[in-house]
Amino acid sequence: METTNKMSALHRVLLVLCSLALVAVIFLPIWRIELDAAQYPEGLELQIYSHKLAGQVEIINGLNHYIGMKTLHADDFVEFTVLPYIIGFFALAFLAVGLANKPKWVYVLFGAFLLFGIVAMVDFYIWEYDYGHNLDPNAPIKVPGMAYQPPLIGYKQLLNFGAYSIPDIGGWIFIGCGILLAYCAVQEWRKAKQ
Amino acid sequence: MELKKYLLTGLAAATLLSTFQACKPKGAGEAVSGGAAEKAYVAPGKYDEFYNFVSGGFSGQLSVYGLPSGRLLRVIPVFSLDPEKGWGFSEETKPMLETSHGNVPWDDLHHVQLSKTDGEYDGKWVFVNANNTPRLARVDLTTFRTAEILELPNSGGNHSSPFITENTEYVVAGTRFSVPVDGESGDVPINTYKQNFRGTLSFVSVNKENGNMDLAFQIETPGVNYDLSRAGKGVSHGWFFFSTYNTEQANTLLEVNASKNDKDFVLAVNWKKAEEYLKAGKGKKVTGLKYAHNKYDEKSHTSKTEFKTETIVLNAEELEGLCYYIPCPKSPHGVDVDPSGEYIVGSGKLAALIPVFSFSKIQKAIEGKQFEGKFGGIPIIKYDAALYGEVEKPGLGPLHTEFDGKGNAITSFFVSSELVKWNIKDLKVLDRVPTYYSTGHLMIPGGDTKSPDGKYVVAYNKITKDRFLPTGPELSQSAQIFDISGDKMQLILDFPTIGEPHYAQAIRAEKVKDKSVKIFKIEENTNPYATKGEKDARVERKGNQVHVYLTSIRSHFAPDNIEGVQLGDEVYFHVTNIEQDWDMPHGFAVKGARNGELLIMPGETQTLKWVPDRIGVFPFYCTDFCSALHQEMQGYIRISKKGSNVPISYSVGTNLPKEGTN
């Protein structure tokens, strides 16, 4: 049956569009952690890109020394070297699958993309755990039992700072691509079943 | 019926007495009417509508209040030392107070002028004058700091200043006390005032880009006292008006001897004509002068003094068409130009009327040579030829006039202690309110621009007395805000001020607030003694000078243990605040310092010179409560005897306690 081996034109267009969107993600902030405190009514912001950290990194580092948290430096993270390539790879993969016109590849791509998403979040969690728990024993401020791990997603009060962790524009695009990919995969699967 | 008669007489007397009592003017307490608090109320955390720059008088500083709340926002040090901010104490700021007389640590700051473009405030700079040792200063409104101070030669008391033209082409400085010109020829008997004393008007040009001032030229006029001045605007742009008194040319007991003439003068100066004469080479170059020009650079965070020696002088007597006198009753004080530029309001401080001159009539009078003689070689225009009209019975002792932009003027009265509103066209008095007490200056936001913001008028008073809780014989000064949005002026707030406020100006907050600098970028710091990171912190000996390159960041200094300094050394603490966060200054103080402290903004470097006077270990610490560990922000410097073999050493965090007993 030839027809079942072909993808719908809409899905192919969506995948190609997602491919372009993923290229943009390389250059956009993916995640953000907003910090608020009484002394910072204007807020402090840490932005995580695929290749760098941005926002008020120096000010946050300066404040974190009170609780003995390691200072944040993009050079310390292998992620910032690898991530642009991985996202670039997915951009190409979306394009290839869109052009290849083989429904089977949509399932494979979805699986790989989902896996990447999970691995990335796990990595982010470990990263936050490490920074939040591995504190300098000589820190000026030590609160017994207190860890400063920022929330994976959502809001958490850390001493006088409220930390709010959410995807940034790049992250939302990434999630959007995942949803569209899932939609394509499900639709292709339902079409194949008929 | 004798009793009845007595009773009736008694009743009549009582009625009469109570009527007299009722006639007695009401006290100040009743002058405030409903809704006043609401009008002056700015909720916590909300911003005021206006920045009000108020002269600090004999404090030598410039204060900044919010309007309408009357909240003190800042005191900007200008002409006087300010130990709070290290102004004049740090090595970087000392040159700002340099003059031809040496370092002058105080002055008397009277008048305030915001820079203008097209006759409107542009929010770039504030110019202020020093009345005692004649100087002009420019305050930068991105940093709210004094950026430049220029001394004025051939002057004695810079009172008629720093009034500016409508595009800030010039800031003027008219000498209050006429004096012989600078130099050895000035050794003349005091009673030769008429022959030897000169009234010099300085025209200082302002660079449009960076605001830098330069003494472009001076106009030499007969010796009188110059009091105040205003630039023409609109139709009268190109002219400047100066009020004079002591046209009697008295040199003693001026109180009596300078109050004899029925009229003194307003001097009208055609400064466009002056520029033509300059171009034509009619100016006389005067050399052998000495005056200081001090500039503060926000990149190197350092000031420098340059002494200048020359200027060009134009002689008002010899150069036709440059100056004209207009008679003005009774020792005029303020001379104010209305928003259109057509009406010039004189204020004789001993007069009981206000003369209003017309610019077009003045021009016609000059054309038709309607003169009544000359004074010191300068033509005097006939009073009636220049006069538009007189405001009759406005009050006693008019001083200054501001404009509401709705066709009215408001004049302050010192003697009768009130503000009086009158219409410029028909010269009729519309309203009057008492002030507490004896108003000198008054201010309407934009009151000297082409389009005043006629919402409030503020009176700055000379006498405070019972307005606030008593604080011994010495009281703060007082100001009052009146709402003038309606027909009647309504008192809405009293607030105390520093120094003695003279002139003030107010500008809409949005023209200034968004340009305000938050931090200095550390990578742009070009101070030769800057330390841009802790790894560069160090101590260097150069002969008997010890240079300490310190950094400060929450909550430690680097280095904080310093040894190897000896008695007889001069220690320079070059402190760089390496914070890059808003509102995170650090201070620096060391025991026994005979100068002051430093207050260093993020990204800035400031230097404190310290000459140890005894052997021992001296603590230094941060004076600005910077963080939760501010009290831990300290260090020690060890002073050994002269010739000691303790080597220079310095560290932070590594010089750990020696174990063992003493």
UniProtKB/TrEMBL annotation, chain B:
InterPro entries: Cupredoxin (IPR008972), N2O_reductase_N (IPR011045), N2OR_C (IPR034205), Nitrous_oxide_Rdtase_Sec-dep (IPR026468), Nos_propeller (IPR041114), NosZ/Cyto_c_oxidase_sub2 (IPR051403), WD40/YVTN_repeat-like_dom_sf (IPR015943). Gene3D superfamilies: Cupredoxins - blue copper proteins, YVTN repeat-like/Quinoprotein amine dehydrogenase. GO terms for molecular function: nitrous-oxide reductase activity. It is an enzyme of class 1 (oxidoreductase). Its EC number is 1.7.2.4. Pfam families: nos_propeller. Signal peptide: none annotated. It is found in: Cell envelope. Keywords: Copper, Metal-binding, Oxidoreductase. The keyword Nucleotide-binding does not apply. This is Sec-dependent nitrous-oxide reductase. It comes from Sphingobacterium tenebrionis.
